[in-house]
Specification:
The chain is α/β, with parallel strands linked by helices. The chain has a single domain, classed as Glutaconate Coenzyme A-transferase, CATH 3.40.1080.10. Helix content is 18%, strand content 26%. A seven-stranded parallel sheet has the order 4-3-2-1-8-11-13. Strands 5-7-6 form a three-stranded antiparallel sheet. Helix 2 links the parallel strand 1 and strand 2.
């Protein structure tokens, strides 16, 4: 990798520098738009004591769920955790620390972190356990709690296309948490389905500018469906 070319050719190189105890922000929603190969590389590396910031923790045997198998995850900061039996087992046994965060708040924590904003106020969670111990202020007669932003040592992201400069386009609902996650990592790694040359992406359609991205890798993806629902004939 030299100059402006951010393409790496192996997943070992893509996740180089990840160490025990780091915080990783992961894009995706359910199993949609998850960086499945980067997650698999973390499992291969055996890195432990990790804190993950992600909407959810995958499912048993796929996505972030595979990192629970060898107890690589110390803490999850998530908004939804209902699809993973091993997650439930470790949580109830006190083996996994979990910080539940409202979904919109979680997205804003990532976005604010990427924008250099240390904290913000939101009405979401006021008067509930989410707001316990947090600063409260009143604006225009309504109570708000202060939420601190989030940044990570790494951000792992799934895109559709990227150019060699690291400009990224997401497809459809993979725009969920990925654009916010991409801004909030000290090292942001994006895996994509296709890499093109600079100038081939329409500048008006780029979702994540390359200035946020450190490494890009082309992968192949299973794209597993979390819950297949079809209409009965």
């Amino acid at each position: 990798m030299s100059g402006f070319n951010k393409v790496v050719n192996s997943y070992e190189e893509a996740m180089e520098g990840l160490e025990d105890g780091m915080t990783v922000i992961a894009g995706g929603f359910g199993l949609c738009g998850i960086p499945e190969n980067l997650i698999a590389q973390i499992k291969t590396m055996g890195t432990k004591e990790l804190t993950f910031v992600s909407n959810n923790c995958g499912v048993d045997g796929f996505g972030l769920g595979i990192l629970l198998e060898d107890r690589q995850v110390k803490k999850m900061i998530s908004s939804y955790v209902g699809e993973n039996a091993l997650f439930e087992k470790q949580l109830l046994a006190g083996e996994l620390e979990v910080e539940l965060t409202p979904q919109g708040t979680l997205a804003e924590k990532m976005r604010a972190g990427g924008a250099g904003i240390p904290a913000f106020y939101t009405a979401t969670g006021y008067g509930t356990p989410v707001g316990d111990g947090k600063e409260v202020r009143e604006f225009s007669g309504r109570k708000y709690i202060m939420e601190e932003s989030i940044t990570g040592d790494f951000a792992i992201v799934k895109g559709w296309k990227a150019d060699t400069y690291g400009n990224v386009v997401y497809r459809d609902t993979a725009q969920n948490f990925n654009p916010m996650a991409a801004t909030a990592g000290k090292i942001t790694v994006v895996e994509v389905e296709e890499i093109v040359e600079p100038g081939e992406l329409n500048p008006a359609e780029i979702h994540t500018p390359g200035i946020y991205v450190n490494r890009v890798i082309k992968g192949s993806f299973e794209k597993r469906i979390e819950q297949r629902t079809v209409r009965q004939g």
